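Please complete every field before forwarding. Incomplete forms are returned to the sender.

SECTION A: IDENTIFIERS
Entry label: holo-232
Bound molecule: fe (ii) ion
Molecule representation: SMILES string

SECTION B: INPUTS
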Amino acid sequence: MNVDLHCHILPEFDDGSESVEMSLEMLRREKAQGVGRVMLTSHFYRTKEDIDHFVRRRAAAFAHLKQAMAGGDYPEVRLGAEVAMHRALRFEDLTPLCYEGTNVILLEMPFEPMGFWFNDLRAIIDKNKVKVVLAHVERFKSLYGKKGFEQVMELPVYKQINTTSLLEGGFFEKRALFKMVEDGDVHLLGTDAHNLKARPVNMKAALDALDRKGLGDRAKEMAERAVKLTTP
Ligand SMILES: [Fe+2]
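SECTION C: PREDICTED COMPLEX
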């Protein structure tokens, strides 16, 4: 089974799906592309709200979506969050933000040069209460420079890349990314889908691209890992 463990399909919640109808269409596309389980990883910003507030708000949006899905042919949907790194997180119970029923959390690093947050991230990892999936690690290369990127890649965490990065972007970036997949340096695929056009569900195209590069076995490994990490 394929799992999309990073997407913004929960309706009217963050900068992702703008309506229930859009969410249903995104889920239909996931299903048509062979995705059997979708983790709804809406953005969580500790600067904007606390964990309790987010969880309550998210439950309401999820109930709304589930109601609209009733009786339809959709993939399994489960809750998660894309948690933006914040200093306060190292002191908090992150369990409610993990993939539903697991101790695995999807963390997003700031879009700024490497700073204190790196130590905060280390503190979360060392606390050992949650397993960390780092979102779209391919973005770090240009952000943090070669040395910073190496530091991130050495962290004992699961590294997720976006399907779109395997399909779009420069020749050299893509070549480097396929090499990282080949070497087993990245561990998980997510669509990070936000809508139907600009940031669509494109799991199938990415899996096909991996296949063409002879990396079908790596894709299978990543899919199996995604199932394990999102299963309670
Ligand atoms: Fe995302």
